[in-house]
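Problem statement: downstream parser choked on a complex file, so we are re-checking the raw output for the coenzyme A run. The parser issue turned out to be on our end (a line-ending mismatch), but while we're here, posting the original submission so the record is complete.
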Amino acid sequence: MHEITGDNINLVKENMLKGKTPRESQVEMTELVLPNDTNLLGNLLGGKLMHWIDIAGAMAASRHSNRVVATVAVDSLDFRHPARMGELVTLKAKLTWVGRTSMEVTVNVYAENVKTGAIIKTNKAYMTFVALDDEGKPTPVPPLIPETDEEKEDYLKAEKRRNERLARKARGY
Ligand SMILES: CC(C)(COP(=O)(O)OP(=O)(O)OC[C@H]1O[C@@H](n2cnc3c(N)ncnc32)[C@H](O)[C@@H]1OP(=O)(O)O)[C@@H](O)C(=O)NCCC(=O)NCCS
């Protein structure tokens, strides 16, 4: 048996982190689109939506890691349909992949017309967060255990997305 010394104590702690499923940390957040959140056409402001996406994604990453997290990357964000004033916007955030200290989260956004009950998917985003310790340094996160076929597939695709992000970073953006 190996002795636990100051040198390898962090490695031992890392290996002891218990895996979690995406379901355990998923977040659903609903907001009402108020007049102050809209442009002159009565559509939800893109910046406001990006703020909500960041918050929903960070909550899921914090739940998974039990840490404060920082956003390090936001992939392209498509605006497929506008959300209108008076509609409910629901953001569903779920972990898709984890590395050593970083986590990829997907956020799907839906707009709901409360009068008709119609719900449409308006946006989808992939974001990367890093778990930080009390000194603000990257710190290890628990492994992710994908459960469904879709989660397993997304986990594999996430590796490719991560490589593209790191290549972009290496090129200096
Ligand atoms: C978060 C931060 C402390 C990490 O520091 P760092 O020097 O990049 O740390 P590392 O190089 O060790 O990277 C940490 C992890 O992030 C990943 N990472 C860093 N930049 C990344 C990027 N652009 N895209 C994807 N992953 C990235 C690394 O691959 C590593 O992942 P791993 O541990 O899972 O392998 C630093 O990047 C930072 O302060 N960024 C600004 C964060 C911020 O202000 N966000 C907005 C407000 S929350």
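For whoever reads this later: The mean pLDDT is 91.
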